Amino acid sequence: MDEPAWQNADSAANFHMVLPMDTSMAKVKTVVRMTYDQNNLYIIVINYKLLRGPYMVESMKRDWAFQKNDNFIFFIDPFDARTDGFTFGANAAGGQWDGTLYAGGSADLNWDQKWYSAVKNYPDKWVFEASIPFKSIRYKKGIKEWGINFSRNDLKTTEKSSWAPVPRQFPTAALAFTGTLVWDEDPPTSSSNISIIPYALAGVSKDYQTGNSASFKREFGGDAKISLTPSLNLDLTVHPDFSQVDVDQQVVNLDRYELFFPEKRQFFLESGDLFYNFGYSDIRPFFSRRIGLNQPIDFGARLTGQLNKNWRIGAMDIQTGNSTDNNIEAANYGVITLQRRVLDRSNIGLMFINKDITGSLPGVNAANNSTIGAEFNLASRNNVWTGKAMALKSFTADKNGHDWVLADHIQYFSRHWQLYLQEEYVGKNYTAAVGYVPRVGYVKISPLLLRNFFPKKGPILSHGIQFTSNYFFNENFKRTDNESALSYIITLRNRSTLTVSGINDYVALQQKFDPTNTHRDSLAIGSQHRYNSLDILLVSKPQSVFTYQVEALTGGYYDNGHRLTLSGTIGYRIQPYVNIALNGNYTDLRLPQPYGDTRFTLVGPKVDVTFTNNLYFTTYVQYNDQQKNLNVNTRFQWRYAPASDIFIVYSENSMPSPYTPKTRQLVIKWTYWWNI
After folding, report:
1. Which terminal CB of the chain, N or C, has fewer other CB atoms within 10 Å?
2. Is 317 found in the same domain as 415?
């Protein structure tokens, strides 16, 4: 702060309180200064302390949970469109946070970029300083006003604050409420912005179930990021490898439909919202995890970014190879999406997705498939009104008619009220070969009503009653199933929460279903089932080094049965080096014969050790009684340079009782981010 550049820089202070109340100035003082040169945007932040005691952080690992850390983060919207942007920050231990912003303020923290930061702690404050290369963000030459906001979370005072005021019902990332960063001249642009990210990998694996000897592999490949303009980026990949990606968290599956797991592979994440935010959570015309998880990716290219303030583009072409082990033929995947800003913060989007089978395997006859779609996304200036209207059509050989999707929703979200209504129609022949649409042939109506109350005094921060319902009909508008829940939600000023819900279920099965997923027998098509349940969810305050989230669900189940599910997460941290978590799920099903009594247990202890801001060790063990599998995943990561890593990953799957190994794999991987 004694350097002339900081002394001459303007400061931002006088933060506004967001929580527990949004009607006053922040009690915890924060001062921000920013400056820049030809290559970097610089920021320094003084985070003053109001109460004595140690800082509260999970660890020094990047992309921590916002609500569990003393932290400072900031949000920038280089196009001042108030719909998408970037976020950077750190917790009080120096753990970095970076991500992209989409849909008006949702953050995708899987995005990883090259930037620099440091944190230093003092008895009365902690100081965060960062350097953001202009090459790491996307912006348009000539736009001299950017949207910006700063956010501070102080757990000891339970105060969340922001520089530009944000209503308490919204996250501080909400881009509808940003202030303005005014440049004294056009932001600098680089004559060359090319990054080459090669990798080298060596590994050994053995499949004990086939009885084959251990196999060794040596692989080389990499990515390239080429900025065609400061706002338009081209990603290229050749023979990519994703062995260092976090393992999926297993769940007990009692659902009739496929489960969803998020994308974590870096190649698919740049401006990823253009692709994965098209549609709804259960109607995704494009789902990148359909590509390359069970077959090799030979090469691919992605073009993403802003053409100007009003137009965004995303295009992708990926070629995969044959997978004889999984009986999947080689295919070419092409996607293009356009987004046009309209009104103040709304947009119109178009998307085309195509899958062409380019390989052949004996006995495999996969069909080509295409989908075309359009949607309108509504977002009012003050973010109170949001909505969507969407239409999709698929094209698949031998499937004609009933291949449309029509869906829409509208939401009103004020301080005291949330009103929501969603409608969906998915034709029985709609096929999204590269999407995630677990259910077809239905009409759905989903209302939500929430009323919140905010006491002025006492330990309760807010409490409210919520009604939700999902009504499903077949294409002839005959009701097939519905789930309705009436809940009461209490949030204390220390941020702990209690939710109590009464749930009513009705199902008229449209296909055979085994309610235990053990393949014993199946309930008949057309059979009707009604039952009620009680659910209690308790989440502890995030300030404690010992935290927990526990949930109990008890009540009826299919065919006059009974279900008891106990689930939760218990955590303990030794700040800022060790974070220990234990995830668990116990399900007890009691059904008449031929199903009988069934019990499932899932236990997942996870240990994160952060030796420094750049040296991590993680061990995740998952015992899944339903799948009769014990999974061990151990990962060592050394970030020896910004966005450059050495990984050592060991994974194992085995039968738990008696212990019998199924597969084992050890991989060593090197990556380097090289800016040209």
Report:
1. C
2. yes
